[in-house]
Design goal:
Blueprint (H helix, E strand, L loop, with lengths): L5 H12 L4 H12 L3 H12 L2 E2 L2 H31 L7 H27 L5 E2 L5 H6 L3
Length: 140
């Protein structure tokens, strides 16, 4: 069993997210394909560690974050989007936006911890060139 650390994953994710066009690419996966950014980041992380997951394990990872995503993160993103669209009508919009972004970041970190907890229950295969992200992106 491979025990991964959520702090190391968070640092990897923050670094990767800020590189080049990665933020735009991940947001495109989310907005155009309905993919979860934190799951994408985890799959890139596993790829970097030469660890491969199976389709069954990928399905379990999706299941473990699905409710949190639907009930917490997506409504928060929708609220931020609504406020952004109507910012001229919102008193103190800048402060509200900052607070919402801070809350969203904390919740994203929580979701990453959920993913690490789940993946730590798997028996992962080492692979010289894993492509976990491809497994997820090709999944319909």
């Amino acid at each position: 069993m491979n025990l991964l650390n959520s702090r190391d994953f968070w640092q990897f994710a923050c670094r990767l997210y800020s590189e080049g066009d990665m933020q735009a690419r991940l947001l495109d996966y989310q907005n155009q394909q309905g993919k979860n950014v934190n799951l994408c980041l985890l799959l890139y992380y596993l790829d970097s560690l030469n660890l491969a997951i199976s389709q069954t394990q990928l399905n379990k990872l999706e299941q473990c974050i699905s409710e949190f995503d639907q009930q917490v993160l997506q409504p928060l993103r929708a609220a931020r989007g609504y406020l952004k669209t109507n910012h001229t009508e919102i008193a103190d919009y800048a402060a509200i936006r900052k607070d919402l972004l801070s809350a969203e970041l904390k919740l994203e970190k929580q979701q990453q911890e959920m993913l690490i907890d789940a993946v730590n229950k798997f028996r992962l295969a080492t692979h010289p060139e894993p492509n976990n992200i491809r497994l997820y992106l090709l999944k319909l």
